[in-house]
Amino acid sequence: MKAVSIETGKASKAKVHGVSRGISVFDLVLRIVAIVGTLASAVAMGTADQALSFSTQIVNFEAQYDDIDAFKFFVIVNAIACGYLALTLPFSIFHIMRRRAGKSRVLLIVLDAIMLVFITSGASAAAAIVYLAHNGNTSTNWFSICQQYTDFCQRSAGSLIGSFGAMAMMVLLIILSAIALSRS
């Protein structure tokens, strides 16, 4: 009986170690996907620019991301989040090699939660403006500008997809870090 329980104990430790390593590898993959999402969002919104073809010499009809503060905030937040995620890649690699790195996991949980809040606030502000651009608001006489600036609106709406995807990755990262911390 004792020999069986010792062997079972060794097998379960190896299984837990394999699961922890798998979680750490998945953490690394999610961080890379989130980097791609935030970088693509920042670049897509930062390069959103459209001039209408019927501009005159006196009046120039042009839509740029930096005309709207919410879009500027969105680009800055996504750039900061992309930089943060790139800086945390070594921690993620370290967690693959060492499964009992509890203090660094706690630090990543806290910092990931802060970045999640930043990404959420930036994406929410930009989503509100994109909604107004697409639908307008008749009670305040704000008209939809997306009928004239179709390329600008498509690009700004598309950039939200990457940011909301990065938000989902950040939520998964926090959950995975908490699971890995509880297993160590």
Automatic annotation (TrEMBL):
<keyword id="KW-1003">Cell membrane</keyword>
<dbReference type="InterPro" id="IPR006702">
    <property type="entry name" value="CASP_dom"/>
</dbReference>
<protein>
    <recommendedName>
        <fullName>CASP-like protein</fullName>
    </recommendedName>
</protein>
<feature type="domain" description="Casparian strip membrane protein">
    <location>
        <begin position="21"/>
        <end position="168"/>
    </location>
</feature>
<dbReference type="Pfam" id="PF04535">
    <property type="entry name" value="CASP_dom"/>
</dbReference>
<keyword id="KW-0812">Transmembrane</keyword>
<comment type="similarity">
    <text>Belongs to the Casparian strip membrane proteins (CASP) family.</text>
</comment>
<dbReference type="InterPro" id="IPR044173">
    <property type="entry name" value="CASPL"/>
</dbReference>
<feature type="transmembrane region" description="Helical">
    <location>
        <begin position="73"/>
        <end position="94"/>
    </location>
</feature>
<dbReference type="InterPro" id="IPR006459">
    <property type="entry name" value="CASP/CASPL"/>
</dbReference>
<feature type="transmembrane region" description="Helical">
    <location>
        <begin position="106"/>
        <end position="133"/>
    </location>
</feature>
<comment type="subunit">
    <text>Homodimer and heterodimers.</text>
</comment>
<dbReference type="GO" id="GO:0005886">
    <property type="term" value="C:plasma membrane"/>
</dbReference>
<feature type="transmembrane region" description="Helical">
    <location>
        <begin position="28"/>
        <end position="48"/>
    </location>
</feature>
<keyword id="KW-1133">Transmembrane helix</keyword>
<keyword id="KW-0472">Membrane</keyword>
<feature type="transmembrane region" description="Helical">
    <location>
        <begin position="160"/>
        <end position="181"/>
    </location>
</feature>
